[in-house]
Recover the amino acids of this structure.
């Protein structure tokens, strides 16, 4: 890309919210101590099946967590890995670490041991705060975790003890209960590192996105307040978990910024459990992903079995929302779904539909305060209506990928970041998704690397080669399809296809398994032997048009 700094396709004159902050700024102090200063101490901050937490309780819990981390020797800028379900303990640890100037790293609770091994060593986390039922996956790796000094176990359930069977670990409840309830915030500045979030990459190695103290404030001021019109009376419920960038805003700092409350649901979100939570907790805003909305629409008699009348707004992100899902949801439940696009690197949504102005099938318009360009492969701006690569500029963009200097230089181009998405913009300023710039797939709101799935398939003794591309299911959502070349003498069969699907499910996280497997004699390749996935996509398109 030769000219990434030309005038933007769309821009805003909005003054940067980051620059409006004082130079000395600590996000935990701003969000929690600020809430108490606003007189919200007795308001409910978090709603759980085990009871509610007020702002005062949350602020005290964060103070105790911060003091507990200090007692373990955690110092400024040192990393603290958080491997917890959505819960008050997550919120307290996240803000407690930030308050002492440490850097929390919310981590996906559904990964494999090798993923945790990589992230803990890559981040050099000194402390791991982990669920009792997840720790056994990591415990065998303890000797190989070079920088890890302490493991703190969060036990749940009556009589549970986080330290009883975990070896050289510390019990979270005991540690926090013995810590001081008062804590002065570290003298950080608005451009200091606040937290990291790991984003998957096409190489299979996650990238640590370094987010700054001001980033949560920027997303709140640019998206949550003006687009969602959040008020103290709102209750948010996010299907996306707190360890996702999308979920972190939805279920934590967005509601806390305005004196609202969030539902923390630690379990797996299914269509049934999502409806039940909406029925029980009465949220006003529900954040989901297209796959979940499709599943909820497929649930028989949901409109009569569950009370969804509390909802005033629904939001979707993670992958493009098909117009049919939007229309069916609105017709059945009387609420619009505001589709948008965000990323781990930019922290939250930067293009979004707005209430009463939705174009079904589009991603919406640029969120004021961000700038966008759609460019060709040479970095030149394309004509309106022409598809190109989407670049975004905004003050919530991460400062770097940790320990990935070349990847940072190739992705973050001055004030611009390459999103890796193909888009075009219509005459009304609405953006329309055209697919990924590379071969990555967005499945159920999570990135899936074809290379990773192909490697899992090839690991099966009866598979010679494999290629994976995206294919739309009956709801218009992208799922993996695999083209498989078998070893000589192996006969294709439906039973073998099912066996290969299960093999991938057991090797990788379940979302990554191919929903369809087609056995082929050979794969299309370049002269140098690279698989031409675009030709496989073309074959699928041609077959669907017949």
């Amino acid at each position: 890309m030769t000219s990434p700094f030309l005038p933007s396709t769309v821009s805003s004159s909005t003054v940067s919210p980051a620059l409006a902050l004082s130079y000395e700024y600590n996000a935990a102090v701003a969000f929690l101590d600020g809430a108490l200063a606003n007189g919200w101490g007795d308001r409910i901050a978090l709603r759980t099946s085990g009871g509610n937490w007020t702002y005062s309780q949350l602020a005290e819990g964060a103070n105790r967590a911060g003091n507990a981390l200090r007692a373990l020797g955690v110092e400024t800028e040192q990393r603290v890995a958080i491997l917890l379900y959505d819960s008050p303990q997550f919120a307290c640890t996240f803000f407690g670490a930030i308050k002492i100037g440490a850097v929390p790293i919310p981590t996906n609770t559904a990964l494999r041991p090798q993923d945790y091994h990589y992230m803990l060593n890559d981040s050099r986390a000194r402390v791991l705060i982990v669920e009792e039922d997840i720790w056994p996956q990591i415990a065998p790796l303890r000797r190989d975790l070079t920088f890890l000094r302490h493991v703190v176990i969060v036990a749940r359930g009556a009589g549970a003890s986080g330290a009883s069977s975990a070896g050289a670990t510390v019990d979270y409840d005991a540690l926090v209960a013995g810590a001081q309830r008062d804590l002065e915030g570290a003298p950080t500045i608005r451009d200091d590192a606040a937290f990291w979030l790991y984003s998957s990459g096409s190489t299979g190695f996650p990238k640590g996105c370094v987010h700054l103290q001001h980033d949560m404030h920027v997303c709140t001021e640019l998206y949550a307040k003006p687009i969602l019109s959040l008020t103290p009376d709102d209750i948010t419920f996010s299907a996306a978990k707190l360890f996702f960038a999308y979920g972190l805003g939805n279920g934590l700092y967005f509601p806390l910024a305005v004196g609202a409350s969030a539902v923390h649901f630690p379990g797996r979100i299914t269509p049934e459990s999502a409806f039940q939570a909406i029925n029980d907790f009465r949220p006003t805003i529900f954040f989901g992903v297209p796959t979940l909305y499709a599943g909820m629409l497929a649930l028989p008699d949901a409109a009569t079995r569950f009370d969804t009348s509390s909802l005033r707004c629904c939001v979707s992100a993670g992958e493009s929302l098909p117009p049919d899902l939007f229309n069916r949801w609105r017709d059945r439940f009387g609420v619009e779904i505001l589709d948008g696009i965000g990323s781990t690197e930019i922290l939250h949504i930067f293009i979004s539909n707005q209430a009463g102005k939705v174009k079904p099938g589009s991603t919406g318009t640029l969120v004021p305060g961000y700038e966008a360009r759609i460019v060709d492969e040479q970095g030149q701006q394309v004509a309106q209506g022409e598809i190109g690569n989407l670049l975004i500029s905004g003050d919530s963009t991460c400062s770097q990928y940790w320990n990935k200097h070349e990847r940072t230089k190739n992705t973050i181009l001055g004030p611009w970041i390459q999103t890796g998405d193909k888009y075009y913009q219509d005459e009304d300023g609405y953006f329309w998704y055209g697919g990924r710039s590379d071969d990555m797939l967005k499945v159920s709101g999570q990135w899936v690397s074809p290379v990773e799935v192909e490697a899992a398939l090839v690991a099966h003794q009866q598979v010679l080669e494999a290629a994976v591309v995206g294919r739309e299911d009956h709801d218009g959502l992208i799922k993996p399809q695999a083209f498989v070349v078998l070893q000589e003498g192996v006969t294709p069969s439906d039973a073998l296809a099912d066996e290969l699907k299960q093999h991938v499910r057991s090797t990788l996280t379940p979302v990554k398994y191919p929903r369809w497997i087609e056995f082929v004699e050979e794969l299309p390749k370049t002269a140098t032997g690279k698989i031409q996935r675009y030709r496989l996509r073309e074959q699928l398109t041609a077959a669907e048009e017949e």
Notes: The longest strand covers residues 416-425. Residues 55-71 form the longest helix (17 residues). The domain at 215-436 is CATH 3.40.50.12780 (Rossmann fold). The mean pLDDT is 91.
